[in-house]
Amino acid sequence: MSDSAEAADRLSARRVRVMTAVMIIFAAQSARPPVDMPQRTVEYVGHFAWLALALVMLLILRTGGMWLRDPVARRLSNDEVTRANRAEALEWGFSAAMATAIAGAVVASLTAMPSVFALRMVILAGLFVATMRFVRLERDALA
Amino acid sequence: MPERLTNNLKATREGRGWTQGQLAEAIGVSRKTINTVENEVFIPSTVIALKLAAALGKPVEELFRLVEE
What we know:
The complex is a heterodimer. Chain A contains 5 helices and no strands. By secondary structure, chain A is mainly alpha-helical. Chain A has one domain. Chain A is elongated. Chain B is an alpha+beta fold. In chain B, helix 2 crosses helix 3. The chains are: A mainly alpha, B alpha+beta. Chain B: It comes from Novosphingobium taihuense. Chain B: Keywords: DNA-binding.
């Protein structure tokens, strides 16, 4: 295989592994979501670290990541099929976020639900589904 | 009548003795793109179809065709 195509494949495979690992960490940190506003400094740090990770995951899904790689490798790793995979993954993520928001609105209309808890559930559902869909599509494409 | 796009990219590429990586390099895409087009998982844009045809020295309609399902 040629050098640049081989490098692009290697980078794509690494991106799949990193995104899977980061999403597992991200989801694990949501295992005990806060049900109220953070009170202590350590809770604020944990909360904003989680939000920062959410923002990074969203940017990777929107742009393909690899911001510090050389432009040729980045372009090859974000070519037409990758962009199509990202678009489909974001479509799935949007649907999951909306479904979670609708379910949350139903629950919130029956009982009190803290906004910070509801928003975290929407973020988690959207990013988790989008990331896992992208990982699945990329794995199939790289096979 | 529903139609499906099929292609004989793999046979044409192998006929020239090229690997997926070599064809990918020739048209400036990743091997992943060639693999998904050959497996009919991904329908390429007109730009990629024209580049594939030019690289393999075949008309586009010889590489891609519509079949009724």
